Amino acid sequence: MTTRAFVVAALLGLAAQGPGRADSAARAVITAPVAGSYVTGRVLLRAALEPAAAAASVRRVLFFADGREVCRLVAPPFECEWDAGRDVVARVVRVVFHFADGGRAAATVRTAGLEYADRVEVDAVQLAVVVTDPDGRFVSGLPRAAFRVFEDDVPQRIGSFLAEDVPLELVAALDVSLSMTDAIPDLKGAARTFLATLPPAAEVSLLAFNDNVFTVARRAAAPEARQRAVDRLAPWGGTALYDVIIRSLEQLDRQTGRRALVLFSDGEDQSSRSTERDAVARVEASDAMIYTVGLGRATTVRPYRRLLERLASVSGGRGLFPDRSDELQDAFTTIVEDLSHQYLIGYQPAKQVRDGAWRRVRVEVRGGAYTVRHRQGYRLLAAGG
């Protein structure tokens, strides 16, 4: 056989084999970033297979951004970080799973870009918006045209709008300091109940904190592993409340989609290297919603309660202070329903100056006497701030 005939025969053989020869039933899914969202800076790339059992036959996984390979993996979790740069431009992210028998499965998502002439040092703002009617019921199915965004009373152009099937990235932070000793049984019960209430598709990282902040269950952990991690918690040491807020938000701000921090604490800080001002500034600069569950002295000591309420309200979240353990289920149902009924809105601020000044944000919704909840504003901090 001539060399040319051999090459032709080989190509015909590959065509007959197809890209997913033995694993054609396996489907690749990119879970981060979300199609249509903005990406900038450090971004998490994450993919999965359906059914999940197909991962056992994966030989390697390649991620590409705009046609360029950015990382290569050989085992789950199939995720890595990629630097999308400062420009908020449309990107194409692709993942290719290669199986041991030569089959493949691939998926592609396209992120959104902003329309502007000068793409240097441009920031995008993401708002998670919850809309309720006069009876307090969540309002779903509203179109993009129903929303108007104002920054310091100046109308802004909505650049991206997502209303459903938006992945949830969540950090649950549990206070296990000595000041929580009497409340630890309630804390464990609260955490178990909350974790069991979350939708299966939620990505959950579980942190605990006292003098230090430590991860007790990573996002790839199975639900049973998270429950066991909660069972092993015991109180000791001081309280680094401000530090855990900053660390949690840094972790969440690397993700895309809906992002939330659920903080279980009595609201007292004893050991943080950071200050309350540092923590509040980080909250003001983050897109993530914060839900604070006040336990122990947070239900009776007013300054602790005020701090937890302030952190939640600035972010557009809620502060919850159940007086009894039997009230926790209602509190968690409230949080999960909140997270399940969010609209995700992105816009490019007309004013692009990283001066650290507070910018008020207001969202109006046409079509009814609605109550609209979202972050109250934000700060564009200087690079590295």
C-alpha end-to-end distance: 67 Å
Query: The CATH topology of the largest domain, please?
Result: Rossmann fold
- The rounded Rg comes to 23 Å
Quote the beta fraction.
Answer: 25-35%
Instruction: Count the domains.
Output: 2
- Residue stretches low in confidence (pLDDT < 50, at least 5 long) are 1-23, 116-122
Outline type: globular
- Helical fraction equals 10-25%
Q: Provide the succession of SSEs.
A: HEEEEEEEEEEEEHEEHHEHEHEHEEEE
Named CATH architecture of the largest domain:
3-Layer(aba) Sandwich
Strand order of the largest sheet: 14-13-12-15-16-17
Average the pLDDT over all residues and give the rounded result: 83
**Helix and strand composition category:** alpha+beta
What is the count of β-strands?
21
CATH class of the largest domain: Alpha Beta
Describe this structure in words.
- There is one protein chain.
- By secondary structure, the protein is of the alpha+beta class.
- The protein has 2 domains: 18-110, Immunoglobulin-like; 123-385, von Willebrand factor, type A domain (Rossmann fold), CATH 3.40.50.
- It is built from 7 helices and 21 strands.
- The chain has helices spanning 3-17, 184-197, 223-231, 241-252, 276-285, 302-315, 328-340; strands at residues 27-32, 42-50, 58-65, 68-73, 79-83, 92-99, 104-110, 125-132, 147-151, 154-156, 158-162, 168-175, 203-209, 213-217, 258-265, 289-294, 319-320, 342-347, 358-365, 371-373, 377-379.
- The strands form 5 sheets. The chain has a 6-stranded mixed β-sheet, sandwiched between helices.
- The longest helix is centred in the N-terminal third of the chain and has 15 residues, at 3-17.
